[in-house]
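hey so u asked for the seq, here:
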Amino acid sequence: MEDRLALRIQLFRESGQAPQQVTRFVEEELTALAAEGHTVTEGTAGMLTSHLVMALTRLLNGEPIEQFLTDEEVAAELAGHPDAVERARAVSFRAEKELGATLPDSEINFLAMHLAVLRKNAVRRDAS
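ran it, structure tokens below
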């Protein structure tokens, strides 16, 4: 994992903002994405990392996660990226199984958007 992205995760853990089980889970997801051929760096996955760490931590702490209705624009964008939606649902399933944290649909959609951007970056890189 890139040093800057690893530092982001380390800061969450060492500052007490996220429990080790959450940061470990996110590290494993990032490693899996890299193994799938994605460029996983601070620049490409920093926001995804923070979003997932914070959402899972809030869930484990019993804090509410605000539900957002997916507007038509987001729904249309996600319809063009079924692989990202499927991957986000798989992450959610694993989070529920391993952490007991059930991501609501709005969080799955946000995660899918991050994954779609990551995949777009990989396609652009491959086309270069």
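The chain has six helices and no strands. Residues 47 and 114 are 8 Å apart (CA to CA).
lmk if thats what u needed
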